[in-house]
């Protein structure tokens, strides 16, 4: 027998923060029901089965259900109905980015890295021409060329307040630039690029990113694999559509689609959503702006392309 079949049952009722009941006076569930299972049940009652949202649950005394009901509560009264206050969490809704608004030349060699600033108002790119460039997104024109590297600029990371930019090259050198004063060079460190990527890229705005943890990987066999690292070592889904190797993937801010080499995939259906054609050669880098309204891509054709809704 499974653990769920032997688990005692309790009656729970869902109420909103303004005390409106959902789904009647009580529903019998196992006392070992998890928060994920509570979310599925609550989304069904809300009519959100096809497009579920993350939901947090609290007792009327303020205790949060963070695991199973049994593990989250010190005392459980099986004779009465447990009232749970449900709080849907904010979810980012991103409309499709479908049109190329600008093709911006400037780099003398392939564009290897590109990244929007955390506030979505700045854009920086690194190239095989050993420069980092800062661009005006609204005018879609180059602003400044930052020269100090002696090799390909492989990765870029903005500071959380968008005032500084770190760039790392193939020699393992990192340069830190002042973005506010037009990219005046500040410092250099002999660190490898992997360290720069691991320590510099994080969510600075402290917003709640909805949904469970997901990992997507791209390969030289032209495929993408979607993973759930917390639950299984096996891939969740295999996604196809590319005709060449996959150089980079990035999640949209709402975590519902992944953009790789200008093919957008819908995570819910694990299928190709739409294409963004236009580059003249291989695409090496892609980034989604924090608010989800723009995508930047760059590659072997030495051109940055801005894509908008």
From TrEMBL:
GO cellular component: nucleolus
Record PROSITE patterns: WD_REPEATS_1, WD_REPEATS_2, WD_REPEATS_REGION
SUPFAM superfamilies: WD40 repeat-like (SSF50978)
Record bears the keyword Nucleus: yes
Annotated NLE domain residues: 10-72
Keyword Transcription regulation included in the entry's annotation: no
Coiled coil: none
Chief site of localization: nucleus
Alphabetic keyword roster: Nucleus, Repeat, WD repeat
Location in the cell: Nucleus, Nucleolus
GO biological process: Notch signaling pathway; ribosomal large subunit assembly
Database matches in Gene3D superfamilies: YVTN repeat-like/Quinoprotein amine dehydrogenase
WD repeats, residue ranges: 104-145, 146-181, 276-309
A Pfam family assignment: NLE
Protein name: NLE domain-containing protein
Organism: Caenorhabditis latens
